[in-house]
Amino acid sequence: MPTNRPITRFRRRATVCVLVGALVVSACSESDETTTTDTTADTTAETTTDTAAGDTTTADATTADATIDEADDGLATTATFRIEVWADNWAAVYVDGELVGEDSVPITTERSFNSETFTFEASYPFTIAIEAKDFKETDSGIEYIGEQNQQMGDGGLIAQVTDAATGEVVAVTDDAWTALVVHRAPLNTDCEDDPVPDDTCEFEITETPEGWADADFDDSEWSDATEWSADAVNPKDGYGDIAWDSDAQFIWGADLEVDNTILLRYTVTG
């Protein structure tokens, strides 16, 4: 049946074409899939990269914001404080080198016993410095010279610092304060009753250090203040006007009578 053979051959060619077409289609499909896969991969990579970059930028911004917030939180906050002082006989109070107040009664006033209250603004930490003086008529260290009550004087000081907003006592005088005695007399106490003590009484004067009241002054070589009992100081007028914290102590140099002028320092850390 010769007529069937060409048909058969045609069908083979058709089959081959179909197979070739299928291969082409398959190849195209694979190419399309590859292209699609590559495109998807590229898009994914780009998206991932962009997203990661975006996250990094956001993280950096967040970190920067956090740093700024922490810096803001770390800024020193200024508050109002009140310092109450009683001294035998006179005191001047400094905070970080600035005078905030001094005794309103002149030291030359006989029996000048009184308390003082001063208000100031500061941020932690701040340094309180006090110059305290016991009355002396001359460098001899003797008072009431030529009078029946001629004698050596005796000193003593007590103070406390309160946060004005909260009412919390944040500092009191005690032996944690540092002290430098800048006037001592009489060194020979047996001259106390001499008719002319200026001729017989010996004294010692130490130069007041420059910047002694400043916050950054180095007081590491100063002595610790000495605590004294209320019986030893015998506080008079003005002392009872203040409700003293139980931790507040009388302080002075090592000798209540011979130490006449004393510098005191303490840093309040909060």
UniProtKB/TrEMBL annotation:
Residues 1-27 form the signal peptide. Keywords: Signal. The keyword Signal applies. Residues 30-56 are annotated as: Disordered. It comes from the Bacteria. Residues 36-56 have a biased composition (Low complexity). This is PEBP family protein.
